Amino acid sequence: MKKILFCLLPLLFILSACHDQQTETNYYLSLLGESETWKLTDYEIMLTPNEVKIGNGRLIMKEENEYITDSFSFNTYAVFSGEDHSIHAGSVSGRADIREQTTGTLEGDQHIDFDELSDIYMIVEWWDPNENDNVQERINLYQKPENDETFLNEESF
Fold first, then answer.
1. How confident is the model at residue 156 (pLDDT cuts 50, 70, 90)?
2. Sign (positive/negative) of CA torsion 145, 36, 122, 79?
3. 100, 117, 138, 102: CA torsion to nearest 10
4. Which residue from 6, 19, 131, 148 puts its CA 20 to 30 A from 120's CA?
């Protein structure tokens, strides 16, 4: 009996150490969206408690085979507690064909609280030589469901 108790004691010690570990929640969003002129595909956001990765998307100008201009930029915003925060941006300057652009990827150690996130959207801006003016369009990527009805907040994974 003493032998069994002697063998079980270390096992109980090890198991009690595992009990105090906290659950870590990671989020992965694969986003896409469209505006009148642009289509965004394969845009990804990965959120962990210690790291954020954003990007890897493709912006494609709809119904154009070629579009030469002097200026193009995009800026992705996340809305937390009613405030818009820029989380990813990119640009092209100089004469270029902007019909298809990659967003690149941004990695950082900033913390984004998914529970406080209500919207994600991208603003695309480019110079339109025909209008002789900058054009700006919004692509909606994520909107938190009303009443927080989303499986992403469930603890049962």
1. very low
2. negative
3. -10
4. 131
Distance CA 86, CA 89 (A): 8
Produce one character per residue of 66-79: b if its CB has 16 or more CB atoms within 10 Å, e if not. ebebebbbbbbbbb
Domain-wise residue ranges, the chain: 27-146
Per the CB < 8 A criterion, the answer to whether 118 and 144 are in contact is yes
What is the assigned CATH class of domain 27-146?
Answer: mainly beta
Q: DSSP characters for 2-19?
A: HHHHHHHHHHHHHHHHHH
Amino acid at 49: P
DSSP, res 153: G
